[in-house]
Every structure is written in C-alpha cells, then in structure tokens.
Recover the amino acids of this structure.
C-alpha cells in the first residue's frame, strides 16, 4: 500500500482523517486542495509531507506555464505546516528543477518518493540492528508515539518500520501504542497498521506511558521526528518528551528513527524549532462533541522537543548517531541527494 503516490497526472493519497473506520483514497489535482489536505491532516507524518511537497510542486509545474504561479503555489504549500522540515525540503528540492521544465520537476518529485521507500526499509534494518545490539538475545517490547508507520511515509515508515522489521525477524514482543491525544494518531492509525501486520499490541492512554515504562512493560521507546536540530534536539509529536524523561528514569533506550531529510542543519537547537500550535477545538471537543464546558480555552502544541541528551540513538537510513557517545553530531549531514 502506498500512502501517497503520483497516478495519471495527479496525486492520490489515503485520507487519514477517515481511518480506522473507512479506507478512502483522495485524488488531488488542485494544488490548493493539497494545502487543505496537509492542514487538516488527511496527509500527515514528516516523510509523507516531504513527498507531498515535492509532488505538489510537480502538480503546479504540470498545470501552468507560469513559473511565478508555480513559485507562489509552492510557497503556500511550504507554509502549510511549520514543524516538519521535510515539507519545505520536498518543496524546495522539486522547485530547484523548475528552470529545466515541468518534466524535470516531476522526475525529481518521483525520485523523492522512491528514495523515501528505500529509506524506510533501511531505517527498519538499522533500527532493528541497533536494538539487537542494545538488547541482545531477547524479543523487544516497543512503545510507540503517534503514527510513524507507512501512513506517515510512502510505505513502512520510520519508527514503525523498525517494529515491522523486528516482527519479520521474529524478535518483536508486545507493542504498546500511546493513543496520542488530541487527534489519536496512535489509536486510529498505528493500531490499524499493527493489526494489518499481525503484530500483538495494546493501546494505552498517553499519561500511562511513563508509569508503564517504570514498571518494565517496554524495552524501548521508538519515535519518529518532524525536525532534528543540528545539535540533535528533536521535535516530534507532543508526548515524546515526557516518554524520553521516563525512559531515562527507567533505563529504557529512547530511539529517534527518521530519514536524513528530517535533519535541519540550519536550526542550531531545539529552542529554535517552530512548534505548530493547532486549534483549541481539537482539545476541547472530539469529532464535533464538546469535552469541556463551552467557551473553555486550550493550548494545543502539536509537537514537543526532546533534548539530545535524552536520546539514546538517532537512526537514519545512512547512519546511527549516538548523542554524547563519540559519533559525529547529527547536524554534520552526509551528502544529501539535493546537494549532488
Ligand atoms: C514518521 S513520522 C514522524 C512524525 O512526523 C510523527 O511522529 C508525527 O509527529 C506526526 O505528526 P502529525 O501531526 O500527525 O503530522
């Protein structure tokens, strides 16, 4: 299953707002409809946003001859969500080909898609190997945050690709899935993916995570990333930081699994990362039903930032960085495809 793809001159994506009740594909041929799909999380997850950004520029370039129109549409798409660096990375990578024509833009966007598929496989292997080294000789019980699976990428995903690889290797124990308030990406999407995989799992409320780590219910916490600063501080779905603190207290490894495209060498540290603030209605209501007295305000940061010193390893498709353990800093990015 591909979460997002280019089909017959348009973008097709799985509408993630409808899962787990309904598996529906959306066809997007209007660039502004793509911006809307990104903002209401019909397509979401950092790697999928990178591919959406690149394919969105291809959609623009193949639908108009005006490079000014392409550039202004690309700006709207780039700004649709602020935290996942992959979105602007994907947009910019495709846009750099504009002077060579629409076909060159599309070819680059398809390369972004194909590299994402390959990166997910490699992250799964690198993450599973890292865990086998950290936790030799036993099956591994993972705890996850949000959805970092195939639905957050083109296929397989990041942190959940590690879970899938362990499962395929017969090394996966019971997985605990934090439900991930307020939009329940864990309960709705990760549980859906684990069920399709045939992997044993239970959903837990977010606030039970730290306690269950301390009671030895999991051997590793595996999370994705929306933006990794040059010093290794990592923005991911809100709730990741509290699990990292608890994992440190419990002596449980905390792994960040993300493609190189999630690393932002231009952002020095976590304090410099823009964290998306979403609408209060997501917190004080669910599915249109109020969960707090009318007029109640809410703070709704979509992400938090985990300091590098709480991260056991950052696993990408190319390397495993161990902050504070003598590996080069994560911001020293090896050559990336767009630099070639
Ligand atoms: C492989 S995805 C990594 C992150 O993008 C994921 O954990 C996450 O925080 C997604 O947030 P979302 O708001 O659902 O786009």
């Amino acid at each position: 299953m591909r979460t997002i793809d280019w089909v017959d001159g348009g973008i097709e994506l799985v509408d993630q707002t409808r899962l787990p009740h309904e598996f529906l594909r959306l066809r997007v041929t209007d660039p502004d409809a793509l911006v809307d799909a990104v903002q209401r999380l019909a397509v979401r997850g950092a790697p999928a946003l990178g591919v959406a950004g690149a394919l969105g520029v291809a959609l623009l370039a193949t639908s108009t001859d005006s490079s000014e129109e392409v550039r202004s549409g690309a700006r709207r798409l780039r700004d649709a969500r602020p935290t996942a660096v992959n979105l602007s990375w994907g947009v910019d990578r495709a846009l750099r080909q504009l002077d060579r024509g629409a076909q060159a833009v599309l070819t680059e966007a398809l390369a972004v898609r194909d590299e994402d598929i390959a990166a997910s496989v490699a992250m799964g292997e690198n993450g599973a190997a890292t865990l086998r080294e950290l936790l030799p000789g036993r099956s591994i019980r993972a705890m996850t945050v949000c959805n970092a699976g195939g639905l957050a990428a083109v296929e397989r995903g990041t942190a959940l690709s590690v879970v899938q690889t362990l499962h395929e290797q017969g090394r996966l124990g019971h997985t605990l899935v934090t439900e991930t308030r307020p939009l329940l990406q864990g309960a709705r999407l990760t549980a859906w993916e684990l069920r399709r995989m045939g992997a044993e799992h239970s959903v837990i409320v977010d606030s039970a995570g730290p306690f269950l780590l301390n009671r030895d219910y999991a051997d590793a916490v595996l999370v994705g990333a929306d933006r990794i600063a040059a010093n290794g501080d990592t923005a991911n779905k809100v709730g990741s930081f509290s699990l990292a603190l608890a994992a440190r207290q419990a002596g449980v490894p905390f792994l960040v699994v993300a493609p190189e495209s999630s690393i932002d060498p231009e952002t020095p540290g976590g304090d410099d990362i823009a964290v998306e603030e979403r609408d209060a209605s997501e917190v004080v209501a669910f599915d249109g039903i109020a969960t707090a007295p009318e007029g109640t305000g809410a703070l709704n940061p979509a992400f938090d930032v985990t300091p590098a010193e709480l991260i056991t390893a950052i696993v990408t498709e190319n390397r495993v960085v161990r902050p504070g353990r003598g590996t080069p800093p994560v911001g020293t990015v090896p050559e990336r495809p767009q630099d070639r």
Remarks:
- The first helix runs from residue 31 to 39.
- The radius of gyration is 19 Å.
- DSSP finds ten helices and 16 strands in the chain.
